[in-house]
Amino acid sequence: MQSGSVTVLVIDDDIVDRMAIERSFKKLHISNPIIEAFDGMEALERLRGENGHEKPNQPLVVLLDLNMPRMGGIEFLDEIRADPELRSTLIFVLTTSRAPMDRYNAYARNIAGYLLKQSPGRTFLEAIEKLARYWGVIEFPDPAD
Questions:
Q1: Angle made by CA atoms 130, 131, 135, in degrees to the nearest 5
Q2: Which of 15, 80, 132, 140 would bridge 59 by S-S if both were Cys, CB 3.0 to 4.6 A apart?
Q3: Is 46 part of any domain?
Q4: pTM above 0.90, yes or no
């Protein structure tokens, strides 16, 4: 199942979590392109096409962890929402943080959803399946408009 031509950017410093997300895509036969970034700084470079990175194709969905080195998820959200070219990017937080303040801060920065990483494997599989269905039925803006 491919949900259109949506590119997925996974921003997470935990390689085990990134691998679990990739395995979930494979198990669900989702062939969307996946780009990975270790933290918010690397993700911004990728999104802006800086430091030798090629800009990802649109439409784009971001899966964002909150707790990362150098630039965490909330700081990344501040940067992306301040960037006129990137501010409308569809972002889902995928984190271990159950802290109400993290949830509040993420939603205050216009995320599309907040998902908890509970038990890697089953949780990722269920979350990715739901996300793929979601981005498979919504209409994305045309970058040419």
A1: 120
A2: 140
A3: yes
A4: no
CATH number assigned to the domain comprising residue 45: 3.40.50.2300
Tell me, yes or no, whether 142 lies in a domain: no
What are the residues whose beta carbons fall under 8 Å from the beta carbon of 132, sequence distance 6 or more?
1, 3, 28, 30, 32
Tell whether the model's pLDDT for residue 142 goes beyond 70: no
Within 32-88, residue ranges assigned H as helices are 40-48, 73-82
- Answer yes or no: is 89 within a domain: yes
Beta-strand ranges (E) seen in 19-109 are 34-37, 60-64, 90-95
Written as six digits, the tokens of 8 are: 């997925």
Predicted confidence (pLDDT) per residue in 97-126, tens digit: 889 999 999 999 999 989 887 755 556 778
